[in-house]
């Protein structure tokens, strides 16, 4: 288990039964679900950082219903074409592990997959879902991994730091990113804002990386179940914008809306 680094002293961690220990005797316990918590108290900005349990449950149920499966399949296809050989994968901001599971299955036998999120609630869900993946609670701005560890890092909506990504990705390795496309959830935004604006889908410039591929993925959803609409509202930033009464009002009527994703594949320079 030498890929993990101690978050306190950056020494390699070695697994000992139900814990991981570094040479300076810093110890971190494995949870019963199998994940490792590598977010020390002194590095937390709140008692329970990241998305809460309610948001995670909403996202899990919405994704399990297959509404974003088109994105998961497209990302898996890109991974298969980009790295057909056994590889090391990291999914940062992995949430409840829906995409992590898809991506890990896209690589051939012998590959290893890791998932990371700052939300403990999210990682608990993820560890139960994708049992062949190693998960940890940690910050994407302070990745607990050795330099040049991964052939591909996936970042779906998650904030991160370019220098940290460049540090953990192998020479000529890849960064696969997803951000909202111009028309993503636009019909829903029209119900919420007086003046709805489209997302900027221009290609990102990431220090240390060269853009190799960019594409727009668009799909139309027809949501007829109020619970699906409620889950969508809870898993997006709209959850903070709307009152419970407004959420209930939107969820009462069937909803047809566009989902759009900006997918980019960058290679480490």
TrEMBL record:
S-adenosyl-L-methionine binds at residues 68, 96-97, 184. It comes from the Bacteria. The keyword Protease does not apply. Residues 87-204 form the Methyltransferase domain. GO terms for molecular function: 23S rRNA (guanine(745)-N(1))-methyltransferase activity; metal ion binding. Pfam families: Methyltransf_31 (PF13847), Zn_ribbon_RlmA (PF21302). This is 23S rRNA (Guanine(745)-N(1))-methyltransferase. Keywords: Metal-binding, Methyltransferase, S-adenosyl-L-methionine, Transferase, Zinc. Residues 4-46 form the 23S rRNA (guanine(745)-N(1))-methyltransferase N-terminal domain. Gene3D superfamilies: Vaccinia Virus protein VP39. InterPro entries: 23S_rRNA_MeTrnsfrase_RlmA, Methyltranfer_dom, RlmA_N, rRNA_m1G-MeTrfase_A_prd, SAM-dependent_MTases_sf. It is an enzyme of class 2 (transferase). The lineage of its organism: Bacteria, Pseudomonadati, Pseudomonadota, Gammaproteobacteria, Alteromonadales. Zn(2+) binds at residues 6, 9, 22, 26. Its EC number is 2.1.1.187. The keyword Transcription does not apply.
